[in-house]
Amino acid sequence: MKAIFVILLLGLSFLQLSGQTITNVVAVQEGDNAVITYNLDCDGSADISLVYSEDEGVTFNGPITNVSGDIGYNITSGKNKRIVWNVLKGQDVFFDDKVIFRVMGFYKFGKLIDTRDGKTYRTVKIGNQVWMAENLNYKSGSSWCYDDNPSNCDTFGRLYNWNTALTACPAGWSLPSDDGWAVLVVFLGGNRVAGGKMKETGTNHWKSPNEGASNSSGFFAIPGGYRGRWNGFSPDYATFWSSSGNDQSSAWYYFILNYDQVLFREYNSTYNGYSIRCIHD
Fold it and tell me: Where residue 34 sits, what CATH number does that domain have?
């Protein structure tokens, strides 16, 4: 017998990026369907998805399938946008007693083609900055695939030592300075919450609990790990170089963990291998 679901709390997400806001998120149960309505105010169009939580908002799952309506790509501004989710379709048992929904919106992504090797990357505007929304995967200098496995480069991009990272970005793009990272952090509300707003949701790449992950910035941070100076690899981190050195043998970098929503800032050996997110000049 299929379980009946009960909606506990509606519309956690009041997403506000540059020129884009989601407000007035409301959900009701109609038979086996959850119907979620929301208002969208954006420049041009946004990409909309829906996630849910069964533990009072500690973790979220999704994006949800079996949905129809104002969801997916190129959703334009308007009031009373409507999403219909057939909750029990194909499910033998679903929620015990309560569900929290979050409507997620992202800018329509731009595209960067790296003419050096033909690879294509998504880009996203966050505030007044334009960032790569994927880790760089350009083979250059001292750079590695995680665990020396080429398939990891396809998923997570390459890991670069700092000296290689300084010149690894394609023309018109560069490794962000510590000041450039600071602009991003301020726009996302500070280090204490920025990591969650940058992390990809769910546990396809991140280990549970993927604390605080909303990806409301569209940055899509994934745990590419890092390579230590003495050739060892460590997983479950998202690590990103800045172009700012600390002293002759160390430089500043940023990292995110699966069990925290903080964007951490630290310095470490320039010999370490970290991921790269290039920023548009």
Answer: 2.60.40
Q: Among candidates 192, 64, 180, 94, which has minimal Cα distance to 132?
A: 180
Query: Which is more confidently placed, 17 or 218?
Result: 218
Cα distance between the two ends of the chain? 58
**C-alpha gyration radius of the chain:** 20
Would you give the distance in Å from CA 163 to the centre of its chain?
26
Residue 158 has pLDDT above 90, yes or no: yes
H or E segment and range at residue 98:
none
H/E run at residue 196: helix 191-198
Distance CA 216, CA 126 (A): 10
Q: Are 14 and 21 in contact (CB under 8 A)?
A: yes
Q: Do residues 132 and 112 make contact, with C-beta atoms less than 8 angstroms apart? A: yes
Whether the predicted model's global pTM rises above the 0.85 cut: no
Q: In terms of domains, do 137 and 228 share one?
A: yes
- Does the residue 179 lie in any domain? yes
